[in-house]
Amino acid sequence: MQQEEQWSSKIGFILASAGSAIGLGAIWKLPYVTGVSGGGAFILLFLLFSLLIGFPLLLGEFVIGRSTGKEAISAYKAIAPGSKWHWIGYLGVFTCFLLLSFYSVIGGWIIQYLYYNVKDLVGASGSVDYKALYDATVSNPVQVVIAQGIFLIITILVVARGVQAGIEKISKIMMPALFILFIILIFRSLTLNHAMDGVSFFLKPDFSSLTSESVLYAMGQSFFSLSVGVSVMVTYSSYLSKKENLLQPALSVVLMNLFISLLAGLAIFPAVFSLGFEPTAGPGLLFIVLPSVFDNIIFGDWFLLLFLALFLFATLTSAFSMLEIVVAAITSKKGKGRSAMSWIMGAAIFLVGIPSALSYSTLSNFTLFGKSIFDSADFLVSNILMPTGALLISIFVSYRMKKDLLKSELIQGSKSLNSIFTVWYFLMRYIVPLVIIAVFLDSLGLI
């Protein structure tokens, strides 16, 4: 039986799904890795693996959700009653709960930087030491916790309104705004002196720079960057009409994710190279290098404001999906109201995330396996829980679900899609699991 919640249109579903997939990693981590891992050569690898690994996995989750019309946990129960397969759903819910607990910390940092930027615009202050500002920001225990709370409140307010009135409505605003902001920033970056040096760093194919590590990263990123492996797309696709074909939205999400990553690189690296800065990975690029770059550009404060707004949009649209899978699972099971459960679970995520928020201040001396609390949570989610979930989903779809059901969901009665189904089924059954195992072992340092 289909849930009452449903997307009002296919474009709403595509934009919300793309918003879930396009997060901070796609915007700042992937462009950097591209630049130091062969440029255009790495992009070609990422595109190839996205189509051969990420796309099949995404379609697999779409099939599970749309065929049952149920959220993550109930969907597996409906397909495989009386079995333990529904634990994949529980794994996905737990992973998203934990992921949002520390992801919201970064969202809080962005909100703090937006506040600093607006304050500077109003006060017209001079240049800022962004390294000192970043250190002061992450080490202030009160401010980081408050900012994390504000980020989660925004997320809760949207999810509490439901699929159409909340997630879909805001995604239809934020995703086009994301593209517009990128175009403005790219235009400004490309008009700077020596901007082409940054474009060359980002896109020039250099196959000699490709290593086994970068190939494995391209494979891993192909499914990490599409929100697969945590059953988010199972929940999102459960709200999709039975009349819609699944191939088009899945391919649209993959291509939009790649396109956003390309736009991010074209916005970031021409400006970075033009002003002689060194591109760095991780938070340093977002919170130290880029603000310093904009500080040296005419109307730089305004462009930095646009860039921070862009990052906040990307972070929020991903956060919506993480909270949605948690809320959908619990409201379906206990029948409680969406609004109340959104606030309850949002508060629980906030409390669990406080140690991560304090990892660089009050709890900076506390470590787990040699890592800070924040880094430990990140490692657990990225290197263990997500690959495990992706592997189990690929096995469930190709070995537990009935082939006839898979075929009917994918081809929607069109015989012209039979060949596409055959290729997809082969990839899901034989290729995808092997690739995920390879990435999983590599992430644990076992190969």
Question: Can you describe what's shown?
Answer:
- Helix content is 77%, strand content 0%.
- It is an all-alpha fold and 447 residues long.
- The chain has one domain: Amino acid/polyamine transporter I, CATH 1.20.1740.10.
- Helix 7 packs across helix 14, helix 7 runs antiparallel to helix 15 (338-357) and helix 16 packs antiparallel against helix 18.
- The mean pLDDT is 86.
- It is found in: Membrane.
Write the layout of secondary structure elements.
Elements lengths: L9 H12 L2 H13 L3 H29 L3 H8 L7 H37 L6 H9 L2 H20 L2 H28 L4 H9 L8 H13 L7 H6 L9 H28 L8 H13 L4 H35 L3 H20 L15 H28 L2 H9 L6 H26 L4
Can you count the beta strands?
Answer: 0
Query: Number of helical segments?
Result: 18
Structural class, from secondary structure content? mainly alpha
What is the fold-level CATH name, i.e. the topology? Answer: Amino acid/polyamine transporter I
Radius of gyration, Cα only, in angstroms?
21 Å
Percentage of helical residues? over 70%
CATH H-tier superfamily:
Amino acid/polyamine transporter I
Largest sheet data: none
* Inertia-based shape: globular
What labels describe this entry?
single chain, 447 residues, mainly alpha, Amino acid/polyamine transporter I, 18 helices, 77% helix, Na/ntran_symport, YocR/YhdH-like, transmembrane helix, transport
Offer a concise description of the structure.
This protein is mainly α. It is built from 18 helices and no strands. The protein has one domain (10-443): Amino acid/polyamine transporter I.
